[in-house]
Design brief:
This protein has about 280 residues and is an alpha+beta fold. It is built from seven helices and twelve strands. The two termini are about 10 Å apart.
Length: about 280
């Protein structure tokens, strides 16, 4: 097979450019070892193909640019992509993602969703809470902010308005252990660790403090994360979860195709296996 691997645009990889490139290269290497031809390029360069991927049997990668994704959707079959283009858009747009999770009963903190049309869903939330941009992934630290009062919240919302951000989410802060997880749905691969043991884009993980080691079952977290991935059709995924003192798990963030920096080699093998398995199943 001939496959296309798509690197994430550097502007969507704050402090993670080399790690994001490394996981895609590792997956490409695994596919080449399996006897397949792999071409790689940045999502910034897809215009050179006129967004037409008919020369490729399958595409995989780390897209973020909404305009690019929409152009690809117009020209290509969704089955060409391991993480569906629609699923990538849902993960990029937090309001859409959380609406899906609400409908599917994915456990997460109470939240209120705000758009230019007003409040779309209004769970009861109280300070302290998190305000997160709802129309795209975080590009700067202010796109995900911990706030403790009305004045702080108003300042963040005003900043969004000045920057033309059209929607945002207010999500209840949950006290507990912050865990980062990585998985490939449809495989046995799943990796988790406390956030304090890993790299941080913006340093926000420090707000939860040192973990307490609250008990939970990793297999239950994998099952929850796999359910979330199926809900948004993104089998290659990562995210953040808080485990509270009672062992209850709350997904607080979910991403299509993260960097897998702490488990790159194992993840690359699982992703390549999932890509090839998906293609065989669709034939």
């Amino acid at each position: 097979m001939k496959l296309l691997g798509i690197y994430r645009s550097e502007k969507f990889s704050p402090n993670m450019v080399s790690n994001d490139k490394a996981i895609l290269d590792a997956v490409a290497d695994e596919l080449v070892k399996a006897g397949h031809e792999v071409v790689t390029m940045s999502e910034d360069d897809l215009s050179t193909l006129s967004y037409d991927l008919s020369a490729y049997d399958l595409a995989f990668g780390m897209l973020r640019n909404t305009d690019t994704i929409n152009k690809l959707m117009e020209k290509n079959d969704e089955n060409k992509f391991i993480n569906t283009l629609g699923g990538i858009l849902d993960c990029n747009e937090r309001v859409a993602l959380l609406e899906i999770f609400m409908d599917e009963g994915i456990n997460m903190p109470p939240c209120a969703l705000y758009t230019h049309l007003g409040v779309k869903s209004n769970d009861e939330v109280t300070f302290p809470l998190w305000i997160k941009r709802g129309d795209g992934c975080a590009e700067v630290k202010e796109d995900t902010s911990f706030v403790t009062n009305d004045e702080e919240a108003a300042a963040i919302v005003a900043n969004y308005q000045e920057r033309g951000i059209s929607s945002f989410v207010a999500q209840q802060h949950i006290e507990g252990d912050l865990i980062k997880f990585y998985g490939v749905e449809g495989t046995d691969f799943f990796n988790w660790d406390y956030a304090s043991n890993g790299h941080s884009k913006f340093g926000l993980e420090e707000i939860n403090g040192k973990e307490h080691g609250y008990p939970f079952k990793p297999e239950d977290l994998k099952a929850l994360a796999d359910r979330a991935s199926r809900a948004v059709e993104t089998p290659v995924y990562g995210g953040d979860c808080v485990v509270d003192a009672e062992g209850k798990m709350y997904i607080i963030d979910f991403n299509d195709w993260p960097s897998f920096s702490r488990c790159r080699e194992e993840a690359a093998k699982a992703i390549a296996k999932r890509i090839l398995g998906t293609k065989i199943k669709n034939l």
